[in-house]
């Protein structure tokens, strides 16, 4: 098969079914994902630039975006630190229940977000077990941005662990031995040899966690309290605008968020390409 | 004796690990963090669900609206999973067995639903099929209901679970290459025979793994479904939506009872996933596992 | 720096990787630890480096007891089989690593580290590649960088674990010569591990042959080859054929036939070890070893005969110059020029002879 330009569209292969498989894939993907997304773009385009700008920079919208980003960044940062710790402990140390802990890491992937949401809300509400403890310390978690950070930390927890874990498993012990024979103490070896090797995986995990946390809805709305300008996240504002039948506002906000998602996706791909180019593999 | 000096030296740890105290402290920190963030919420679900006793629990689950929600959830998963399974197989066959232009773009597009907020996944269908949507007037004229009806819920669920099977299969089939299929062809097998007798057995565990994750998400999806459902009791409420309604009505015991079913599903999923990883880890793609 | 190893023992769980090994490595010597896998050679090297702790025994660097020093304190240059280069660092940063991690008081200035690294890069003939990353180097180049990195810390001893094991044959040969050259110029006491006897015999001043966690023999290439201390060494080094024989009053018997080979060893069953090129094919006579030729193969400059000898039809190989054109078929007679006899149950006793029958 050759295109009009003479460039091969695909390399010849003896295997059959290319046309059928690719055709089905494209049609399915188009109908389920691309056409609906195009509807979003069309609707946004219908707003006009001025209309879009007014909606996209509405104070309540901006406040929601700021909150979504701020809390997502905080959650991703918490998971970066603890995800590294958990991955390290799981890969390097043997302790009773290690496999169980390893399996539990994926709980946030498997547990429906609404379930996580009401569970966290009941724990961190002022009359819940943790919420009561925090209240004694004068700290309110539920119905504040702090509660949102808790929920987002929960849902994005597996990303950092699961991206660092395989890289850590592959690190050759010889590298650490080499550093030791060259006189590096354990701390210097960790800081100068192991940590730099993990940086691409840490960045990727961080970005994945951030992307997930920014768009998260179900687990947040129960614990957040949803007070406009205080604890109202962007995805919730989309839902509110929809319920008000204010489709333009919902569309504009969705566009803002999509742009961010794509930027993060691009960042992840760039990190991986950079890491491949420099170190030979991710 | 020659090893007097070694009395101290013999206990020295290998150079590639930390002192016992550091190891214990790190393990403790990790376990406490996970207990606080993972185990406690899970325990809370079951504790709250059984607060009203077993009788109250059973009554909450046998409630007609709850049963309707369970039925709808099963129906949605029963449509979304097979659909995405077929899609995953077709996409993996095209991507892994052939070289063509635009392949990496295609792979990125397949992963796209993972990077989109579930609320937006629902929104796009509202914008397409809703009353004010692009196709809204036409649908209304023909009496077809998608938004605030079951088809919308199914579509939104398919959207958010679309990548699961494909992303398990693509890296695995790329690792496996086309050698087996070419051998089968050379021995005279036809295209479909090759697929069912050679390719499918090679990827069956990864396929199962993908379907398992797809199913968990399909049954548990909340944001996307919430936007397109309209929350009509007994008609368009899936289990997660039912949980929300009950919770917002301050009917906590019932909300947690339904939630506990979903949490049970999550635990079963985790167990099966772990079993697959331990027993058939070699048959799953290293790149696709998570 | 002299290395003295005293009664070293290392157990991993229930198995002994090293049993009571003692060895002295002279200052400036290039020594090879040679043995099959599982012989304990790598364990011994790692014990010297301090990467493992001995179960029992001591290690001295010169007069200093290094047994209780940590690997960091031992100041050894260790070159790993798979190089273990830090892939996120440039070649120059890899070489300078050992200097950069020194405590502030002993750390050279940034410029001094750079200068030293460049100097070493020159020594290993890789000038101009300082900004490359390990993934951009060939296997041979990586091994050179690994050596330069080990030399940068001015090690007391240089230890290499299968340094050429991961390289292809051509690069191996070049690097072998080059390592010898570097050793002669820098004069470091060097111990390297190898399972390749050619490598050990060609490169090392002395070879330590190991098996089953023990040292079988220590000696120069000539000593190891000419006077193998045990059947294990004889059969591990070079090619060999083994004939089951009897010793009676100082004479060797194959089946019931007296060979004109005399030994100084007690009566009883024994094994006669022969090398293919130390056997002549001769006119049939009373004291010769009779054999039946089963195959003849031409191999480069030699001709290789495969024979069956004795009642048990034991296989013996003979290598003769290819220009001997007489036909070798059917029954022939063999006379070994060099050979060794090891009593089967004679403990450590062994005997042998050169030019037997003369």
Automatic annotation (TrEMBL), chain A:
Molecular function in Gene Ontology: ABC-type sulfate transporter activity
Matching InterPro entries: CysT_permease, MetI-like, MetI-like_sf, Sulph_transpt2
Subcellular location: Cell membrane
Gene3D superfamilies in alphabetical order: MetI-like
PROSITE patterns in alphabetical order: ABC_TM1 (PS50928)
Membrane-protein topology: Multi-pass membrane protein
Keyword vocabulary terms for this entry: Membrane, Sulfate transport, Transmembrane, Transmembrane helix, Transport
CDD domains: TM_PBP2
Pfam families for the chain: BPD_transp_1
Superkingdom, natural source: Bacteria
Predominant subcellular localization, coarse grouping: membrane
Coiled coil region boundaries: none
GO CC annotation, single: plasma membrane
Membrane-crossing segments per the record: 20-42, 67-91, 103-125, 137-161, 193-214, 220-240, 252-274
ABC transmembrane type-1 domain: residues covered: 65-266
Matches recorded under PANTHER family: SULFATE TRANSPORT SYSTEM PERMEASE PROTEIN, SULFATE TRANSPORT SYSTEM PERMEASE PROTEIN CYST
Record text on subunit structure and interactions: The complex is composed of two ATP-binding proteins (CysA), two transmembrane proteins (CysT and CysW) and a solute-binding protein (CysP).
Family to which this protein belongs: Belongs to the binding-protein-dependent transport system permease family. CysTW subfamily.
Protein role: Part of the ABC transporter complex CysAWTP (TC 3.A.1.6.1) involved in sulfate/thiosulfate import. Probably responsible for the translocation of the substrate across the membrane. Part of the ABC transporter complex (TC 3.A.1.6.1) involved in sulfate/thiosulfate import.
NCBIfam families (alphabetical): 3a0106s02, permease_CysT
Name listed for the protein in its UniProt record: Sulfate transport system permease protein CysT
Gene name in the database record: cysT
From TrEMBL, chain B:
A GO molecular-function annotation: ABC-type sulfate transporter activity
Pfam annotation, one family: BPD_transp_1
UniProt xrefs under InterPro entries: CysW_permease (IPR011866), MetI-like (IPR000515), MetI-like_sf (IPR035906), Sulph_transpt2 (IPR005667)
Positions of the ABC transmembrane type-1 domain: 70-271
Membrane topology listed for this record: Multi-pass membrane protein
Protein keywords: Cell inner membrane, Cell membrane, Membrane, Sulfate transport, Transmembrane, Transmembrane helix, Transport
Location(s), subcellular: Cell inner membrane
Main location: membrane
Domain of life: Bacteria
Example of a GO cellular component annotation carried by this entry: plasma membrane
Transmembrane parts of this sequence: 27-47, 68-96, 116-139, 146-164, 252-272
Protein role: Part of the ABC transporter complex CysAWTP (TC 3.A.1.6.1) involved in sulfate/thiosulfate import. Probably responsible for the translocation of the substrate across the membrane.
Quaternary organization: The complex is composed of two ATP-binding proteins (CysA), two transmembrane proteins (CysT and CysW) and a solute-binding protein (CysP).
Name by which UniProt lists this protein: Sulfate transport system permease protein CysW
TrEMBL record, chain C:
GO biological process terms held by the UniProt record: quaternary ammonium group transport
Residue ranges that the Swiss-Prot or TrEMBL entry lists as coiled coil: none
Annotated Gene Ontology cellular component terms: ATP-binding cassette (ABC) transporter complex
Keywords: ATP-binding, Cell membrane, Membrane, Nucleotide-binding, Sulfate transport, Translocase, Transport
Homology family: Belongs to the ABC transporter superfamily.
Name of the featured protein: Sulfate/molybdate ABC transporter ATP-binding protein
Source taxon at top rank: Bacteria
InterPro entries (alphabetical): AAA+_ATPase, ABC_SmlMolc_Importer, ABC_transporter-like_ATP-bd, ABC_transporter-like_CS, Mo/tungstate-bd_C_term_dom, P-loop_NTPase, Sulph_transpt1, TOBE-like
Chain ranges of the ABC transporter domain: 3-237
NCBIfam families on file: 3a0106s01 (TIGR00968)
Molecular functions (GO terms): ABC-type sulfate transporter activity; ATP binding; ATP hydrolysis activity
Organism: Propylenella binzhouense
Organism lineage: Bacteria, Pseudomonadati, Pseudomonadota, Alphaproteobacteria, Hyphomicrobiales
CDD domains the record matches: ABC_CysA_sulfate_importer
């Amino acid at each position: 098969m050759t295109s009009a330009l003479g460039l091969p569209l695909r390399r010849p292969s003896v295997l059959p079914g290319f046309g059928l498989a690719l055709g089905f894939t494209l049609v399915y993907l188009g109908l389920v994902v691309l056409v609906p997304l195009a509807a979003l773009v069309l609707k946004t385009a219908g707003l006009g630039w001025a209309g879009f700008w007014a909606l996209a920079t509405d104070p309540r919208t901006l406040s929601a975006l700021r909150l979504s980003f701020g809390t997502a960044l905080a959650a991703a940062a918490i998971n970066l630190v603890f995800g590294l710790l958990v991955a390290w402990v799981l890969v390097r140390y043997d302790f009773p229940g290690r496999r169980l802990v390893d399996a539990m890491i994926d709980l946030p992937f498997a547990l429906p977000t609404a379930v996580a949401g009401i569970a966290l809300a009941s724990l961190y509400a002022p009359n819940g077990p943790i919420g009561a403890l925090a209240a004694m310390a004068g700290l309110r978690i539920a119905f504040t941005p702090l509660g949102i950070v808790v929920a987002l930390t929960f849902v994005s927890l597996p990303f950092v662990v699961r991206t660092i874990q395989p890289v850590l498993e592959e690190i050759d012990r010889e590298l650490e031995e080499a550093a030791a024979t060259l006189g590096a103490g354990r701390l210097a070896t960790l800081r100068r040899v192991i940590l730099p090797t993990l940086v691409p995986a840490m960045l990727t995990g961080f970005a994945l966690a951030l992307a997930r946390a920014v768009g998260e809805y179900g687990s947040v709305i129960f614990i957040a309290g949803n007070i406009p300008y205080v604890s109202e996240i962007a995805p919730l504002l989309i839902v509110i605008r929809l319920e008000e039948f204010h489709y333009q506002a919902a569309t504009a906000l969705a566009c803002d968020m999509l742009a961010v998602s794509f930027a993060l996706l691009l960042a992840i791909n760039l990190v991986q390409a950079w890491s491949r180019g420099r170190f030979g593999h991710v | 004796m020659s090893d007097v000096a070694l009395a101290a030296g013999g206990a020295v740890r290998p150079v590639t690990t930390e002192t016992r105290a550091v190891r214990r402290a790190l393990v403790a920190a990790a376990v406490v963090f996970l207990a606080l963030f993972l185990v406690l919420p899970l325990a809370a679900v079951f504790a709250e669900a059984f607060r009203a006793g077993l009788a109250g629990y059973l009554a909450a689950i046998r409630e007609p609206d709850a049963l309707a929600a369970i039925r709808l959830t099963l129906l949605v998963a029963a449509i979304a999973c097979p659909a995405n399974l077929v899609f995953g197989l077709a996409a993996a066959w095209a991507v892994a067995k052939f070289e063509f232009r635009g392949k990496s773009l295609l792979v990125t597009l397949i992963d796209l639903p993972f990077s989109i907020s579930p609320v937006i996944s629902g929104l796009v269908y509202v914008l397409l099929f809703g009353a004010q949507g692009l196709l809204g007037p036409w649908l209304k004229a023909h009496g077809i209901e998608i938004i605030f009806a079951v088809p919308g819920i199914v579509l939104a669920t398919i959207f958010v679970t679309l990548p699961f099977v494909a992303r398990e299969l693509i890296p695995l089939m790329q690792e496996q290459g086309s050698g087996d299929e070419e051998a089968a062809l050379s021995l005279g097998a036809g295209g479909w025979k090759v697929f069912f007798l050679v390719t499918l057995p090679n990827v069956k565990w990864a396929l199962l793994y993908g379907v398992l994750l797809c199913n968990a998400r399909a049954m548990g999806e909340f944001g996307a479904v919430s936007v397109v459902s309209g929350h009509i009791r007994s008609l368009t409420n899936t289990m997660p939506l039912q949980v929300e309604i009950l919770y917002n009505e301050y009917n906590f015991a019932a909300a947690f009872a339904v939630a506990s079913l979903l949490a049970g599903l999550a635990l079963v999923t985790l167990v099966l996933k772990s079993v697959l990883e331990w027993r058939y880890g070699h048959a799953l793609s290293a790149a696709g596992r998570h | 720096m002299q290395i003295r190893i005293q009664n070293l023992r290392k157990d991993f769980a229930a198995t002994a990787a090293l049993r009571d090994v003692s060895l002295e490595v002279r200052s400036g010597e290039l020594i090879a630890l040679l043995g099959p896998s599982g012989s304990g050679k790598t364990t011994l090297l790692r014990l010297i480096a301090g990467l493992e702790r001995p179960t029992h025994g001591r290690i001295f660097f010169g007069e200093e007891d290094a047994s209780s020093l940590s690997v960091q304190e031992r100041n050894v240059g260790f070159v790993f089989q798979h190089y273990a280069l830090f892939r996120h660092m440039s070649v120059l940063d890899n070489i300078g690593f050992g200097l950069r991690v020194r405590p502030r008081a002993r750390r050279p200035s940034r410029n001094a580290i750079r200068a030293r690294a460049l100097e070493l890069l020159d020594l290993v003939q890789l000038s101009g590649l300082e900004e490359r990353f390990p993934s951009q180097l060939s296997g041979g180049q990586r091994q050179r960088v690994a050596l330069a990195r080990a030399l940068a810390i001015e090690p007391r001893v240089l230890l290499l674990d299968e340094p050429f094991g991961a390289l292809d044959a051509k690069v191996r040969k070049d690097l072998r010569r080059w390592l010898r050259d570097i050793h002669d110029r820098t004069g470091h006491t060097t111990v390297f591990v190898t399972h390749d006897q050619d490598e050990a015999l060609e490169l090392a001043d002395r070879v330590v042959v190991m098996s089953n966690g023990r040292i079988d023999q220590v000696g120069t290439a000539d000593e190891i080859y000419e006077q193998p201390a045990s059947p294990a060494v004889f059969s591990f080094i070079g090619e060999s054929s083994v004939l089951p024989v009897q010793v009676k009053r100082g004479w060797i018997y194959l089946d019931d036939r007296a060979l004109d080979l005399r030994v100084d060893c007690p009566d009883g069953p024994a094994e006669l070890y022969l090398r293919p090129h130390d056997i002549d094919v001769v006119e049939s006579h009373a004291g010769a070893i009779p054999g039946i030729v089963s195959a003849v193969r031409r191999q480069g400059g030699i001709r290789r005969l495969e024979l069956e000898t004795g009642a048990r039809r034991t296989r013996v190989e003979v290598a003769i110059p290819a220009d001997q054109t007489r036909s070798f078929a059917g029954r022939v007679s063999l006379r070994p020029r060099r050979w060794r006899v090891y009593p089967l149950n004679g403990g450590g006793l062994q005997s042998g002879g050169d030019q037997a029958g003369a």
